[in-house]
Amino acid sequence: MNKVYLDYAAATPISTQVLKAMQPFFESNFYNPSALYLDAQSAKSSLTEARAEVANQLGCKSSEVLFVAGGTESDNLAINGIMQKFPGKNLVVSAIEHDAVLQPAEQYDCRIANVAQDAQVDLQDLQAKINDDTVLVSVMYANNEVGSIQPIKEIAKIIKNIRDTRLVEAERKSIDPLPLYFHTDACQATNYLSLLVNTLGVDLMTLNGGKIYGPKQSGILFVRTGVELKPQILGGGQERGFRSGTENIASAIGFATALNEAAEQRDTESNRLIALRDNMIDRLLRIDGLTINGSAHRLANNIHFTVAGYDNERLLMELDECGFMVATGSACSASSDEPSHVLKAMGIPDRDARSSVRLTLGRQTTENDIINFLKTLEQLVQ
To answer: Is residue 168 located within the same domain as residue 88?
Structure first.
């Protein structure tokens, strides 16, 4: 039986182009880039080129790109790095952040901004949660469970206005103003949305190679020049001293190649998946008792639905037996018995949260896959 994969938000297969680009750095060009002999310097040059390629896609300086081991490390470096640099201060995060943001944030004075029923951040509540001691705001670009895209530019404007007010007040008092940084986790957005950091207005941004057909445990943290960040891994001072340890050149090359490939395919692939997604949603809504969760302003590849009264784990197993791989929520918390914190924040009752399923499409998803899935789902639930 040929199985159909519909969980691209959890992991993507590595692309042929990415694998080919990485191969030499496992074999012939394996050198430590910190060594002084010419072959090692050649490896270092490849790392520099990869960093420049990433910077080009983000519209930033190469020095503002830190290579890390995936989205979780990137989020942790952003949250812990800022909050430990400013002890005693607080941060504001949205209620639907990934656990890689929420769990480190909970170690500090953390204020949670509410979201509406469609998982859009309540901007008035977000602004109200920011006070004179807030040093960091973290709101994800697009949600990993229900796919809702957040108004990042509008949040950046709110933060800029608060910064301007602080600056005026600090000048009046002849003191240095407390900074207010804006971080966004853009792991799910990378394939489908613009990543130009200056247009978005962010100071820190997390990207994950394992979500963009690159290697797992690869990624970056964009850190705008001037952002004060405390390093979390100490040692040889690699990555501008923010992340010590011998650089994983193969991973960096793979990430940069995957990011370039994602940018090249962004428009055409988004349009293709939007057509598949919208057709699927139209068909799903014909099933009695089924509702779609999240915003109409959602990622091109995301569909999240509830089948009232139907246990989602049971449905997942039945679909798996029929050859379809789907998810009940975030893969990182799939072993938890607790209902999704994202669905709770949206006001979805626990019983409905336990009847909810996430589908995420990808490059290998075809129209036939969608047709066959819908036929199977209709048979199972009706």
So the answer is: yes
Q: Is the pTM of this model over 0.85?
A: yes
Going from the C-alpha of 160 to that of each of 89, 166, 180, 200, 331, the distances in angstroms are 19, 10, 9, 12, 34
pLDDT tens digit sequence for 306-335? 999 899 999 999 999 999 999 996 544 444
Residues labelled as active-site residues: 332
Whether 206 and 124 share a structural domain? yes
Tell me which residue has tokens 């008092």.
173
Q: CA 119, CA 347: separation in Å to the nearest integer?
A: 9
End-to-end, the C-alpha distance of the chain in Å comes to: 24
Q: Where are the alpha helices (DSSP H) in 133-244?
A: 152-173, 197-200
Residue ranges making up the domain that contains 285: 4-12+266-381
Indicate if 331 and 208 belong to the same structural domain.
no
Domain of residue 233, CATH code:
3.40.640.10
* Same domain membership, residue 209 and residue 121: yes
Per-residue confidence band for 34, with pLDDT thresholds at 50, 70 and 90 = confident
Q: What's the rounded Cα separation, in Å, for the pair 143 and 299?
A: 9
